[in-house]
Design a protein that fits this description.
Blueprint (H helix, E strand, L loop, with lengths): L4 H18 L9 H20 L20 H9 L2 H4 L4 H12 L4 H8 L3 H20 L11 H15 L3 H7 E9 L3 E4 L1 H13 L4 E7 L2 E7 L8 E10 L2 E7 L12 E3 L3
Parallel strand pairs: 1-6
Antiparallel strand pairs: 1-2, 3-4, 3-7, 4-5, 5-6
Helix pairs in contact: 1-2, 2-6, 3-5, 5-7
């Protein structure tokens, strides 16, 4: 729905937080799968609205006569479709195709999740499937992401100091009000607390860093130098304010983000 494993991880966290807040220990949730899907769907919509990525709306027409095969060919196509293609569908089409053809919900269950009418859901599914077939038949042109010269200079300095294990110099780059999230592990705030995070890397030897992109965003890629395949095992996102690091998100312990991420290096 979000077109990025990074945004997807944020939406999952938001979904689980909202679910915990919505139910107490004595409540019984009927149809919990659909209930969670609906929370996730609404969280994804809110996330997309905040980012102003998607403003298109499907015009509801009477599509009640459209046949509803949960076509196996459409399901196979949807399952093999990359995030970039899904992002070219309208939000309503994307929701319908993912819920029906990827997650296997019925049309009525999909209406329950999205809050749309049966007619609108059928229309969105029909048009989304047709658009995906067109996209699958067309050659894919992917723009190569590029780093701004200043961004590259700062990232290279950070990575070079990290790889040299000069963590005193790395700590000198972080701001007093820095925020750190080690996804699936911990969150820290402030230079004194975050400084301990670098000690964990100093004690380990199963990493080396390089510059690259994850879902088109500048990132620091983590590999294990002891593994012959050279595969990316994790990544970091670093945000700057002038010459100081103000936020670090470390996905080293979130391996589920890697299979669907689009990863490339600065040098290709």
């Amino acid at each position: 729905m979000a077109g990025s494993v990074i945004d997807g991880e944020d939406i999952v966290q938001e979904t689980l937080l909202k679910a915990v807040q919505a139910v107490d220990g004595s409540a019984v949730v009927e149809r919990p799968e659909q209930w969670l899907f609906r929370i996730a769907h609404n969280a994804a919509q809110d996330h997309l609205r905040r980012r102003r990525r998607e403003r298109s709306r499907i015009t509801e027409v009477d599509m009640t006569m459209i046949e509803d095969p949960s076509g196996s060919a459409d399901a196979r196509l949807a399952a093999a479709t990359g995030l970039r293609s899904f992002m070219r569908l309208s939000l309503a089409q994307r929701s319908a195709v993912i819920l029906v053809d990827v997650l296997g919900l019925s049309l009525h269950e999909t209406c329950e999740v999205t809050g749309a009418t049966l007619a609108a859901t059928k229309a969105a599914l029909h048009r989304g499937r047709a658009q995906l077939r067109l996209l699958a038949a067309a050659p894919e042109h992917v723009a190569t992401p590029r780093l701004d010269a200043e961004d590259e200079r700062r990232l290279r300095r950070y990575v070079d100091l990290f790889n040299a294990r000069d963590f005193d110099a790395v700590r000198a780059l972080i701001a007093e009000d820095i925020k750190l999230e080690v996804v699936n592990r911990t969150r820290m705030r402030g230079k004194a607390e975050v400084s301990t995070y670098f000690g964990n890397y100093d004690r380990a030897s199963d990493w080396t860093l390089s510059i690259g992109f994850v879902d088109g965003r500048p990132a620091i890629l983590i590999r294990n130098p002891g593994e012959a395949d050279g595969a990316v095992r994790g990544f970091m996102l670093v945000e700057w304010r002038d010459e100081r690091v103000v936020q670090i998100r470390d996905f080293r312990y979130a391996p589920w983000c890697l299979p669907d991420a689009e990863i490339s290096t600065v040098d290709g």
